Amino acid sequence: MNARTEPQLLQALNNHHLDALEEETIFILREVAAAFERPTLLFSGGKDSLVMLKCAEKAFGVGRIPYPLLMIDTGHNFQEVTDFRDQRAAELQAKLIVRSVEDSMARGTVRLAHEGESRNVHQSVTLLEAIDEFQFDALIGGARRDEEKARAKERIFSHRDSFGQWQPKSQRPELWTAFNTKLQPGEHFRVFPISNWTELDVWQYIEREQIALPSIYYTHPRQVVERKGLLVPVTALTPPRDGEVVVTKDVRFRTVGDITCTCPVESLAATAADVVMETLVVDVSERGATRMDDKTSEASMEKRKKEGYF
Hints:
The chain is of the alpha/beta class. It has two domains: 6-200 and 299-306, 3-Layer(aba) Sandwich (Rossmann fold), CATH 3.40.50.620; 214-294, no CATH class. The protein is built from nine helices and ten strands. 40% of the residues are buried.
């Protein structure tokens, strides 16, 4: 047998690592299908949900994913992402359900403190309304433990009470793959199949599987202003403030969400391989580097999660 070169050995080790993560994710996705009556997969069109959807495609096949996709739309999402969301759902012949924060506002269940307030936190209300509407008993999400400290406290199968609330200090034991899926009426689970993935794992998997992403994940010129250490995109929803200087920079988005709280980073990465190389040397989490609403505290995010946030 020919001896492998060092790059070949590194690639083999990397594939083994990604194979193990993929296998775990597929197992969890199938476990949800077997254990629950009305599950749904939260799908935003972002990179993490696209990786999870690729695993679902491998688990069940095109046109055979046994649960609908659910998107909670703030009405302030990047058009490139929502267009891609619709395209990918159509390719997989999957049912896509979209529920809007704006509809909750029209019903009066969401009230903004002021017109410019971010709607991101209010997705919790719309999500809980969708759960009640469709009687979902399990919601599969793409959150990862390395994103920030509050999410690191989640189990893979994370119980929610009849009010949709999370109690981090009274979670059920989770030993190996012995998941506790018992529910009382009105309760549900949030399930996180890629909990054990990191941002680097996600990008290595995207590169290996050649997963298509919305274009804003890669370098492109964009007008921005510098604000509190972040690059804020200049849009109709996020105009420059007095004294701020608008500049055009080559940027990409590490994570995508509501326009009013999502910032790009300066980058020339044009491919998944380029992003992998950048990710190897970053020392700030993607949410810490790009989300204005996460520049507060772990306690703030934990409070939002207790109230039903993703």
